[in-house]
Design goal:
mainly beta; 17-stranded mixed beta sheet; 1 helix
Length: 251
Amino acid sequence: MNKQLNLLLISALILFCLINCGKDNADEVIPDAPDANDKTGWKLVFEENFDGSAVNTAEWSMYNGSGHTGNGLRRPEAFSIENGLLVVTAQMKDGQLVSGGMAHRKNYTYGKFEFRVRTEKDPALATSGVVLTWPQSEIWPADGELDIYETMTNGDRNPFYTVIHYAANNQQIQYQHHYDATQWHTIAMEWLPEIIRIFRDDVLVYTCNKPEAIPDVAHHLCIQLDAFKTTMNDPVHMYVDWVKIYQPDSK
């Protein structure tokens, strides 16, 4: 009798795991979700395909200073254009970890920001690839920071994240994408006064409608491969295929 009871309990436990295990990894089911490919209500105002021989500095401002939180250096030389891709390289040079960041020169209050990106593994856990919007005011964190795509320092780049920073005490809302960021993904953010929507590979996966978390001031798009240490091993690359920015269509 005890043996039969044990078997029943084990069977129930297995069934529970089959039903529930992995729920934390699942995307939120969003009813009547809009299609990321439906651009109704949006007007394309900027498109960058990185098809030149170098970064277009008329459109992008290149960082040239200390690295993220003082780790290493950010230099324009970290950027290159190869086969129609923007490449950001983090590597050791003359005893310094050198990486890069760049900011779009135009600022927008609200909009749709879309890009195709991937970031290599980093066994040294030294770097984080991030595409974000940053406030024109430079008042951080009170005026917000929208990390649309952020690998953090996960060595295998799985999961990656969307992080919303807000309020003077740097409150954060974090969404985990349980996908491999070393592979190509198309990521989009729709930022409107009442809602932020995040799309991954044309599927709406997250929404934020918390009023205090949604910025209402102008931001610009940034692409960065951030250093979280002062040393690393082999070079790490982040690749961006294209960037598109839309504004609400008032027609």
